[in-house]
Amino acid sequence: RWICSSCTLRNSSDVFQCVACGTILVPQMSISPPSSVESLQPESMSMDQMREIAERKVMTIVENIIKFCRDQNMPFVDDQFPPTENALYFPSSSSRPNKCQWLRPQQITFSSNDTDWRNREWSVFSNPSPTDIKQGVLGNCWFLSALAVLAERPDLLKRVMVTKNYNKEGVYVVRLCKAGVWQTVFVDDLLPCDEKRRLIYSHARGKQLWVPLVEKALAKLHGCYEALQAGRSIEGLATLTGYPCESLALQQSCPETEVEEDMVWVKLLSSMEAGYLMGASCGGGNMDTNDEEYNQIGLRPRHAYSVLRVTSEYNIKFIFRLVQLRNPWGHFSWKGDWSNESVLWQQNPQLANQLFQRNADNGTFWMCLEDMMKYFDSVDICKIYGRNWVEVSLGGKFPTSAAEPLTGFTLEVFKECELEFSLFQQLSRTQESSNQSPVDTCICIFRSSVFNGKATIGTMVASSKRKVKKHQSCSCMLDVGTYLVINLAFNHWLSGYAGAGGSPSTSGVALVSPSYVLTLHSSHAVGITACNNIDGLIADAVIQLALKAGKETAVRDGVACYQLTKGWGGLVVVAENRHQSSCFHIRCETTCNNLVSSRGSLYTADSVPPLHRQVIMILSQVDSYSGFSVKHKLTHRMAGNGVDDLGNWGPRSVKHDPPLTLDVANLHQPRPL
């Protein structure tokens, strides 16, 4: 039985329409993030197999709803996302058009400049291309740009629309991957229009419905259309495809990071050869852009372009690194070197014959890598893999202190394979949740073994960088064996999360454990299960990370410090005492900005026992939109024989200052070598 959402009458399960008020039953859509690791399927399955199974199930329901609507001579109305103001705006929104009406396709008109629509019939697809997309009043270029990149591959685009043919009943299904979780979204074809019966939001040329229907499905996932404002193209690509995505930086984000042109070029070439989708972000991120300057050279700042080709070309004297881009809006093109009007084509006729398209008017142009790295801030790469790749997703939560258990995932690799790990934080787009901030995530993969039901942590084989971003990724090749996957995050321990508004935990605000979804794509089937039964897991994970990726400094005979700084979103300090009998004293004094300490203090003093390692301090970036700075000074000495406390560096009989309280002990307690 099912309960009608309009009149609350309990109806029989064999009817699709409420017998009292006539409301049509819409299949329920799961739009909540998984609350635990048990809530997602831990078995890997081919991505194409998953999609085909889901489509078969859904199309049976679609056919039943269409048949019911035809029998009743009535169109479909989605009561889960009804055509009201609540579907358009946040409750407190002030940016509302003067008038809005919800119309079916056959009721919609177009501007007088678009004469093509009069001679066409409505369809879902009609030879779709990136230049079909037209943005409306909504500031969702991040999504439409990703949609334009996907439209470069119509075969992939059509996977998003489960219902690929127009139907008068208005029953459509869209398949999207929200923050790592696949969602099957039912929508009707009632679309927001102005008083002249023209579409308010996005639409497509030639009376195609794929653009407004996918946009409506995404609005339903996030609660309303207004929730789609602002974002990054990489989020759109991941949502539309479910494939692993990564962002290739073209600009230096902080003084400690470097962007090497040669490495960027190698990555672009290899991604193009692999058949990946790529979208370039122009003048976005932290770039200080001058809109007038960009307009003069034919570029749109804060706009995304499709990357079509990447090639190295030669003449007698030079090597040219050229990238072909397309403005998805089909006009307004680059005017600099290698543009459509550039004299460089005349000077290099052989290249012109190979690459140049005369009279190109679809927004396509060539640009050299040097200019691209001057005016673009990043390239988002969507890794399209073959049919045999498998996918598995698991949910979890980041602990708010070291006193809470840290979930690890035991990974069994049965055949050498390539793996892609994607970590999605479950953050809401609603205005009421706008104070949610992503935490500083890091994915780590370690060798492991299981003995008497307990997993052990070994050396680290791969990791991502630590970044304050909603989405994190890590790629690696793994041999046959057992591994342990650990997801780390620390800046929410003392900075608060969600309801805390960035305040320290000492404000008395209860901390909320941020939830996440870990998605794994692999070239062969793997086994993965959650495990919590690991002693000292969080400390050992950070120690092994520092040993593998940190800078080692031999401070004394038998004593070393490992530090993670450049590219690690703050500072990590680990001390190692290889002496047989003497303790090692170490003080860490720091000054910083936009960083929070895992120990709640910027000064620490510790006595590290013989044959032990210890995580001394972790400083984590808080605000991803602001830079950070840190200076630290390490002072150290060997303790006398039989001395295990700090001596005159701390209170009597104290080994650690500040003390290792319950909420930090499992991270900062000394661990045996």
The share of residues in extended strands comes to 25-35%
- Calculate the mean pLDDT score and round it: 85
Strand order of the largest sheet: 10-15-11-12-13-14
Helix share of residues?
Answer: 10-25%
Tell me the major beta sheet.
6 strands, antiparallel
* Topology-level CATH name of the largest domain: Jelly Rolls
CATH A-level architecture of the largest domain: Sandwich
GO cellular component, one term: cytoplasm
Keywords: Hydrolase, Metal-binding, Phosphoprotein, Protease, Repeat, Thiol protease, Zinc, Zinc-finger
Protein name: Zinc finger protein
Active site: 141, 303, 327
Description:
The chain is an alpha+beta fold. It folds into five domains: 1-30; 75-79 and 114-242, no CATH class; 245-382, Cysteine proteinases (Cathepsin B, Chain A, Alpha-Beta Complex); 390-540, Jelly Rolls, CATH 2.60.120; 550-672, Immunoglobulin-like, CATH 2.60.40. The chain contains 13 helices and 35 strands. The strands form nine sheets. It has a six-stranded antiparallel beta sheet, sandwiched between helices. Strands 17, 19, 20, 21, 23 and 25 form a six-stranded antiparallel beta sheet that branches. Strands 26, 27, 28, 30, 32 and 35 form a six-stranded antiparallel beta sheet that branches. Strand 19 (440-451) and strand 20 form a beta hairpin. Helix 2 packs across helix 5.
